[in-house]
Specification:
By secondary structure, the chain is mainly alpha-helical. The protein has 23 helices and no strands. It is a multi-pass membrane protein. It is found in: Cell membrane. It catalyses: D-glucose(out) = D-glucose(in); D-fructose(out) = D-fructose(in); L-dehydroascorbate(out) = L-dehydroascorbate(in); alpha,alpha-trehalose(in) = alpha,alpha-trehalose(out).
Amino acid sequence: MAAEESRYLLGDPAPDSNPRVQNKKLYLATFAAVLGPLSFGFVLGYSSPVIPELRKISDAKLRMDSSQASWFGSVVTLGAATGGILGGYLVDKAGRKLSLMLCSVPYVFGFVVIISAQNVWMLYLGRMLTGLASGITSLVVPVYISETSHPKVRGMLGSCVQLMVVTGILGAYIAGITLQWRWLAVLCCFPSCIMLLFMSFMPETPRFLLNQNKHSEAIASLRFLRGPHVDHERECRQIEASVQEQGLNLSEFKNPSIYRPLITGVALMFFQQVTGINAVMFYAESIFEDANFKDSRMASVVVGSIQVCFTAVAALIIDKTGRKVLLYASGIIMALSTALFGLYFKMVLPIQNNSSNPDVWFTLNSASPGTESNISWLAVMSLGLFVAGFALGWGPVPWLVISEIFPLKARGILSGACVLTNWIMAFLVTKEFNDFIAFLTSYGTFWFFSAFCCLNIIFTAFCVPETKGQTLEQIEAYFRRS
């Protein structure tokens, strides 16, 4: 895609739909939907306070060694990858609303299995089920929000998905300070139960209804979302003009309107994971301890708070700055901070350990006496900078963009491919991280991530379209004309 294509897709941004649009019920529908990502965040954050407790528990059947703890943390990603495939099917067959309501079942059932666990395998099963629900949620909620929102607020509301994820993670960190692991699982059940209740009163998206030839229901949905004082028929006609035949044939993947957004979406998910976000979070606890933050749980709360603050900033400014500006800023900040991480490890760790032992605890403890404490500020600064940079752009924006760029008839299956890519990459980066360190050394691994952050910037410049201010139909028409 040429660089000039980074301009607004069809000339001037779409004007506000109507000055009489009422957003209150749209915000209510968005709030109901993002309770799913809040549950998703609790799932991701649950393992951090729980693993130390399970490694010391008196019950031998539940006690975990380091390998089992690693699987307890990462098996969620395998469940989520499966959920991405299932969600891609459900969202087109059952609809956006029903898919979101159904995913509350594995959330609750998974945590019930954890609460009643008698052995490690039951804990794995519970994590797998909550991961499955998380995968469905990460696909369905961005689609639901993008299809119910109008262009003026779609960026802000779409960014609330990631905001609620990091809020859930932070909530699990804070609650984990005082709650025992079974009671923390009980708390984690509540958001999905509330989501099920609220979503039962929310409408299906008008685009899905029109794709099912349910015109009167689509009008009723728009009346709920926009208020009674706008021209609902006009918006319906605009949507209907882009609704094509149902179904997606394999031969249509040769069509640029299908394969170009698919390549863009898959690449966004790939680059999001190879920024090194999981690697940096893996090192967070040890970095804070080297800087004399002895309470590692409070360190996790600090990191989570940074994520929430900067994701909120992104949500507030994204409809003014556009998507690409945030991706540029985020990529630059992460490239700089991971390069500084590499410099820190190059200065702190003995040369022989960098190449022979991937265990961060061993290598940091074997550093020259006083070295790490003298420059621990560099690691803490790099960590804060990286987390802030990721939260500002490459955290929320890829999820928003993949909910905007796919044609209606293929939105489910193409979104599923992107979610599957994201979770598979998350699993690989998490599980193979120590192998990276053994092969590339600690500093080499972080410079490798820095190089990918630089590639992110180039990719954004040439391959990511600016979708600010455009209707979903205009975005679809842009790819169709390519």
